[in-house]
Design brief:
Blueprint (H helix, E strand, L loop, with lengths): L9 E8 L10 E7 L5 E8 L5 E6 L4 E7 L7 E7 L4 E7 L7
Parallel strand pairs: 1-7
Antiparallel strand pairs: 1-4, 2-3, 2-5, 5-6
């Protein structure tokens, strides 16, 4: 069985942080591809580790992706990432402070 050469893969890795700057474990992170017409197509999802991190393995072909996390009771936090080759791409998602009543 042949193994995949990790030098031919694009890795999109990142972390989710609380408003106080702490790592957020068990956050649901979704990955969507941004299509040419501007719409998005969900392609994968992950739950952050105990250190608040996540990682997606992608094709190294040029494409735009949107990473998002939706905190409870708030609007989603998103970051767009352009993939243009085999490399490691990093992103940080910072959750907003909860509005005060």
């Amino acid at each position: 069985m042949l193994t995949i050469d990790e030098g031919s893969i694009a890795f999109l890795s990142g972390s989710v942080f609380s408003p106080e700057g702490r790592s957020v474990a068990n956050a649901k992170v979704e990955l969507s591809r941004i299509l040419e017409d501007g719409t998005t197509k969900k392609i994968d999802g992950r739950i952050t580790t105990e250190t608040g991190s996540f990682k997606f393995r992608l094709s190294p072909d040029a494409a735009k992706y949107r990473v998002s996390v939706k905190p409870e009771g708030a609007e989603p936090v998103t970051k767009d990432v352009e993939i243009d080759g085999a490399a490691v791409y990093r992103v940080a998602l910072n959750l907003p402070a909860k509005p005060k009543p």
